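Researcher: We plan to redesign the surface later, but first we want a full-length starting point. Tokens attached.
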């Protein structure tokens, strides 16, 4: 069974305009009916979910597209196909999680900006040594 763009939008929770954008970016494919209406295979639901999850964790659409090319075009992806694709970002997500944990743990004491506005800053950043290395949160980047 195929889905119209409206059905795919309703089932996926993504606006029709976003689906059209995903298609222009090569993330989704559809076929056209004799009346020039888009029809999507049912596995497009999983692709859209995958795209949304990737966006939510900050993975650029260009990277999403590169990973989606690993999925088969001529058949619906299997559980094994999705497991293989999901592994591609494991290391990157682990790094992001570590960075977020670091940020969470350091944020209340100091964000490493060299602002010297907190009484602990002279201990962590005496004479604004971090400022010599450039702007921004130098301890965290």
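Model: Full-length starting sequence:
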């Amino acid at each position: 069974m195929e889905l119209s763009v409206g059905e795919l939008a309703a089932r996926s929770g993504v606006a029709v305009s976003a689906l059209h954008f995903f298609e222009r970016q090569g993330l989704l494919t559809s076929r056209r009916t004799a009346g020039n209406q888009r029809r999507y295979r049912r596995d497009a639901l999983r692709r859209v979910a995958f795209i949304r999850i990737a966006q939510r964790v900050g993975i650029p659409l260009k990277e999403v597209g590169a990973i989606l090319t690993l999925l088969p075009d001529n058949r619906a992806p299997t559980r094994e196909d999705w497991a293989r694709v999901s592994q591609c970002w494991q290391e990157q997500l682990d790094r992001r999680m570590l960075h977020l944990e670091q940020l969470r743990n350091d944020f209340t004491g100091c964000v490493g900006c060299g602002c010297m506005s907190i009484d602990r800053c002279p201990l962590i950043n005496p004479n604004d040594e971090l400022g010599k290395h450039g702007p921004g949160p130098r301890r965290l980047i």
